[in-house]
Each structure stands twice: as C-alpha cells, then as structure tokens.
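Notebook B, p. 112. Complex prediction, attempt 2.
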Amino acid sequence: MLMFIAMGRAFGTGEPVEAAEPELPFNLAILAAVVIAINAVQSLVSIISVYREGGILKPSAPLSLR
Amino acid sequence: MTILGAHVVVKLGFTVISLALLVLAGRRLFPGVMQVNVFSFTLSLLLSTLSILSLGFLIASVVPTARFAQPIGAAVLYPTLAVSGLFFPVDRLPPTVEEVTYLLPTTHAVALLEGVWGGSGWSAHWVNVAALLVLFAAFTALSTKVFRWE
C-alpha cells in the first residue's frame, strides 16, 4: 500500500481527478480485512509447522496442549 | 503453550496494526466515505481472526511437514473466503456446499463484518458471534487431539 501511494505520488500528474464511483459487487474493505486475517493465520500455520518439524517446541511438549 | 500463545498475540497485534494503517489510509485518501465504528469493526475482526486462527491450528496439526504448510494452508483458507458470502450470497451455492460453509469461520466472519460495517449492532449478529466462538472452541479442541510432536 505504501509502495502504491509512493508510486502514485512519483508518477501521478498531481492534478486531482474526480474518482469514479466504485461499482464493485462486494465490499472491498471487508475483503481487505479478511485477507489481513487469513494472512496472519497463514503465517502462524507456517511458524507452527516449522517449530514442530524443527523440534523447537519439543522441550515444552509435556507441558503444553494437554 | 506460552510460545504458541505469544505467537497468537503477536498475530492479533499485527492484524490490528494492519487494520489501523488501512483505516488511516482510507480516511486520508477518501475522506468522509468511511462511517464505520472503527472500535466495533476492530473487535469483530479480532474475533474473526481468532476463530480463523483455530482453523489454522488444525491445519498446522495435520500437515506433515513445514514445506507443505504454506500451500496447504492457502489451498484450504482462500477457498473458504470465496464461498464466505462476500462475493455472492451463500444461498446461491448448492445446498450441500451451503451447509458446509456454515461450518467455516470465514462465512460468519464476513457476515459479522458486513453487519458492523453496515451499522447494525452486534446483537443483530449474535448468531455469527456465537458461531465464531463455537467454531473456535471446536477447532481448538480438535487440534489438541490431533497435534503430534514430530
């Protein structure tokens, strides 16, 4: 998003343009929010898998999840 | 459990930060468009994330290796978004698929977020809130059953 804004500032004409009314058949803000949530989950899935495979959590295994 | 809990807290924190940046950018670029109660929307997103995280725990518990965790996670999670009711009403799906979608946290998350975004209170979506909590409990319980240390 920051790259998008920076590139817009760098390559834009600087002239304000009247934005067209978005005609998306879904709520873009909700999509963005849910994608943020899913990305967080995806990241956690990867971390837990790496931990399980690498044995980082093994020392605490008897104390956890049971 | 402490390590996993810390990761969950960090993920929830990053979710709030990402949402805050999104809201700030939205208000800066499109002033006056966003009339949503940000606090209520953030709470609903946190509840949704927590419920989806429990599904993530389950995926991480059954995926055999870290190499496959990312693609399998994506293969499971993103289709749940596609059938969540965000892009088209859930009742347009085949009856069997429609029933399955109600067992997915993303369906209730989208319904709750759309409701809060539209201005209706949490009480109007208590079914979705309850479903998110029940799914969180169910997926967490299931993942503790199937979780094995490699």
